[in-house]
Description:
The chain is of the alpha/beta class. Helices cover 32% and strands 20% of the residues. Strand 1 (2-7), helix 1 (16-30) and strand 2 form a beta-alpha-beta unit.
Amino acid sequence: xxxxxxxxxxxxxxxxxxRFAMEMRKGLEQKGIDIVTVSAPDKSYxxxxxxxxxxxxxLRTGLPKDCDVYHALTPMEGxxxxxxxxxxxxxxx
Length: 93
């Protein structure tokens, strides 16, 4: 099975969400699942405008086409994941 994880970052720059993304990737890899990660370019961390451009435009064409499951780790990254193959995580406060 090939899983595409979509998150803003897979490091601690994103605080708790970054940690969640790192742990999700690590846990799936430990189970032997083939993981592809898609994340925002570094400049998207500089401003909300850059991040919205990434989620509204870059993700639309930047997702791999050959994955079995697409898991967006926040709702913003989930806009373009394929229907019927997607999971979106909502974090409560």
